[in-house]
Amino acid sequence: MAGKLIIFSAPSGSGKSTIINYLLTQNLNLSFSISATSRAPRGTEQNGVEYFFLTPEEFKQRIANNEFLEYEEVYKDRFYGTLKAQVEKQLAAGQNVIFDVDVVGGCNIKKFYGDRALSVFIQPPSLEELRKRLTGRGTDAPEVIESRLAKATFELSYAEKFDVVIVNDNLEKAQAEALKTIRDFIQQ
Ligand SMILES: Nc1nc2c(ncn2[C@@H]2O[C@H](COP(=O)(O)OP(=O)(O)O)[C@@H](O)[C@H]2O)c(=O)[nH]1
Ligand SMILES: Nc1ncnc2c1ncn2[C@@H]1O[C@H](COP(=O)(O)OP(=O)(O)O)[C@@H](O)[C@H]1O
Fold first, then answer.
1. Ligand nearest 68 Cα, by number?
2. N or C: less crowded end of the chain, CB within 10 Å?
3. 68 within 8 A of 84, measured Cβ to Cβ
4. Is 105 a pocket residue for ligand 1 (Cβ < 6 Å)?
5. Residue 140: helix, strand or coil by DSSP?
6. What is the pTM of this model?
7. Run means of pLDDT, 10 residues per run, the chain, 188 residues
8. For ligand 2, what atom is nearest to the CA of residue 138?
9. Which numbered ligand comes closest to the C-alpha of 138?
10. Domain boundary assignment for the chain
11. Does 39 contact ligand 1 (Cβ within 6 A)?
12. How far is the CA of 168 from the centre of ligand 2 (A)?
């Protein structure tokens, strides 16, 4: 049987990656959708593992070739997108594909696949808590944290467009809720 699609979107720092990584350990036959990006690899990142790394020119060429299911300029001059061929290959192999995409991309994938997709919004308890988590994560410079927070209000306004909203206040509770929701959807 062809697989289903599970889309996760959230403001940066909400706990989306933490919850996705947990779900990937839960025998749900999930396969992560590796996005393409025009940003350069950092540290130990490898092409085809964290992302497919493309130069801005290559990215634009693939847009022109209509190779993307969706793409967005998520941050200024930084494109992220989902390659159609990748997703179709995973679905055809019977895997359920899980996405970590921005709110606009998430809504576009849902629109394209309809009932075959479940869109999930991970909501932080508050903007103050989001700031604490981004600071605590320790991966971003203060100005990057500010730009992520500046975007968060816009992203939060998208919550109502998603099939399910999970508030990530207590992590264990949010993980359990995500697991139940996705298990039910996959078994439908
Ligand atoms: N629309 C869209 N957004 C994506 C895709 N891949 C990643 N994103 C989003 O792009 C943003 C990436 O930002 P960040 O977490 O800083 O990722 P980093 O570049 O790996 O540091 C997040 O909001 C992701 O959800 C994609 O294929 N399409
Ligand atoms: N419920 C929670 N309570 C406290 N900290 C959390 C919770 N969920 C996630 N975190 C922490 O918040 C930070 C941001 O989480 P992350 O999964 O990287 O977010 P995102 O992928 O949405 O940007 C991480 O350091 C993570 O360990």
1. 1
2. N
3. yes
4. yes
5. coil
6. 0.96
7. 93 97 96 97 95 97 98 91 97 97 97 98 97 95 94 97 98 98 96
8. 25
9. 2
10. 5-187
11. yes
12. 9
